[in-house]
Amino acid sequence: MPLRVVRTIDEVRTSLAERRGSGTIGLVPTMGALHAGHARLIDHARAECPTVVVSIFVNPLQFDRADDLAHYPRPLDADLALCERLGVDVVFAPAPDAIYPEPPDVTVHVGATAQYLCGAFRPGHFNGVATVVLKLFDIIQPDVAYFGEKDAQQLAIVRRMVADLNVPVRIAPVPTVRETDGLALSSRNQHLNEAERALAPGLFRALTVARDAVASGVADAEVVKRRAAGTLPSDERLRLEYLELVDPRTFQPVQRVEGPVVAAAALWVGKTRLIDNVLCTPPA
Amino acid sequence: MPLRVVRTIDEVRTSLAERRGSGTIGLVPTMGALHAGHARLIDHARAECPTVVVSIFVNPLQFDRADDLAHYPRPLDADLALCERLGVDVVFAPAPDAIYPEPPDVTVHVGATAQYLCGAFRPGHFNGVATVVLKLFDIIQPDVAYFGEKDAQQLAIVRRMVADLNVPVRIAPVPTVRETDGLALSSRNQHLNEAERALAPGLFRALTVARDAVASGVADAEVVKRRAAGTLPSDERLRLEYLELVDPRTFQPVQRVEGPVVAAAALWVGKTRLIDNVLCTPPA
């Protein structure tokens, strides 16, 4: 069946009503500017679900900076071509007005899970993420939704939302896709110039240093973090926003590593903010 | 079919899975201590839905005072007998741990709609209401849910939540049931002693004075409110918490009455807090 592109809530509900009942519906929620990381999410959905829906919506509610929202890439034609090639059934690409006909008065609020890392540096960001994800779940009513592990705190928050609000959707995490030099794929990578692009893999390298330190038995989080951050080249174009070791479920920082932790970091490379994370497991 | 009483989320989902697909499921969410007002809700559900679910859960998240939570009546046997008599199919009566296995970190947040009236006097109350209602919707996945008009601000908030979060549930309002002297039925009425019970109908009387003033063309909200509050007997057992004219959808106070408004009030009668409201329509 050819790809069906729908713009309104009524259209997407109608187009899925026919398919509901004939097996699971898988949703890949995206903000567009699709890359190989999204393709991996879609591939997972395609392998598991008779019906695959991709949503493409640059959610204004989750942007803390107006210029970031304005400059976020929106290459819809290329996105649709990729979805078609990957065998997506339905793309839901609503206009902002379809999702927010008026400013929402009832929203989703995230507590401690959003307290640190990106949540600390991007006020309101995760409330906006949680709100739009819940709306998309309520609009599309998928059985499964696929989220990339690259956005680890987002994934933890969506899982917590599903648990705390009893949302009847299974959350399927999908491993991060990386360039050969380790840089995690991101729609923001296209903002990097050549020199910045050469610096960017330092983020993943630092995190692997944290992973190796934890694996070798270093349990003092401060030591791990210092060792990891110390590997970043001193370059005026690089600014480390945070590098933290957190509990994989609660996303609270740990002082001592006594089980698996997530090493997560945000690095400004010029005017581009990159995030990445690596699961770190101490020796048995 | 006999009434089925279930205690866990798995049980209620399983017991409804068989019935889903054979017509609509109607939910009447309650905190128990059922009275003729709840019976009216159940009757409406019974008339419209092949499957009627009543939830009975005293939601700790919506109580701002611990003593109020502790003293809230919980006559479960009588409640189940009433449900059986009214032909309810499933009663979902979970323990607090089933709904909140841990303190929720992701909750529902209500903005301006909860800013005045009960929202102003009961901090966090409506966030707790919205959170548990959304959880019950996600657990039970009803097609329709029935709410009493007596809790007018709650009804407005649930409607706003359904709109803002695209919740696929139809909200059906049901008119307030009153004693012959006008007192709105409430589980809290049983806390009134004889003298307090005699004073309690003053609340509804005051609201009907507001309604009559608006109907007669008084457009200045201050005048309407003063006239209504002025009818309350001066008695040390009575304390008017608020009496306000608000927009029926946004629940923002109005200064001039230029269309239908809700006159809403909360009155303490001794140690019991009663609320009521009346829709007021100006002359055409």
Key phrases:
homodimer; 284 residues; alpha/beta; Pantoate--beta-alanine Ligase, Chain: A,domain 2; 2 domains; six-stranded parallel β-sheet; three-stranded antiparallel β-sheet; 11 helices
Chain-wise SSE layout:
2 copies of one chain form a homodimer.
Chain A: E1 4-6, H1 9-17, E2 25-30, H2 36-48, E3 51-56, H3 66-71, H4 76-85, E4 90-92, H5 96-99, E5 106-110, H6 118-121, H7 125-140, E6 144-148, H8 152-164, E7 170-174, H9 194-199, H10 202-215, H11 221-229, E8 238-246, E9 261-269, E10 272-280
Parallel strand pairs in A: 1-4, 2-3, 2-6, 3-4, 6-7
Antiparallel strand pairs in A: 8-9, 9-10
What do you see in this structure?
Two copies of one chain form a homodimer. The first copy, chain A, is α/β, with parallel strands linked by helices and 284 residues long. Chain A folds into two domains: 4-174, Rossmann fold; 187-278, Pantoate--beta-alanine Ligase, Chain: A,domain 2 (2-Layer Sandwich), CATH 3.30.1300. In chain A, 37% of the residues lie in helices and 21% in strands. Chain A has helices spanning 9-17, 36-48, 66-71, 76-85, 96-99, 118-121, 125-140, 152-164, 194-199, 202-215, 221-229, and strands spanning 4-6, 25-30, 51-56, 90-92, 106-110, 144-148, 170-174, 238-246, 261-269, 272-280. Chain A has a six-stranded parallel sheet, with helices on both faces. The first copy, chain A, has a three-stranded antiparallel sheet with strand order 8-9-10. In chain A, helix 2 (36-48) links the parallel strand 2 and strand 3 (51-56). In chain A, helix 7 packs across helix 8 (152-164) and helix 10 packs antiparallel against helix 11. The model of chain A has no long low-confidence stretch (mean pLDDT 97). At the A-B interface, strand 5, helix 7 and helix 8 of A face strand 5, helix 7 and helix 8 of B. Strand 5 (106-110) of chain A pairs antiparallel with strand 5 (106-110) of chain B.
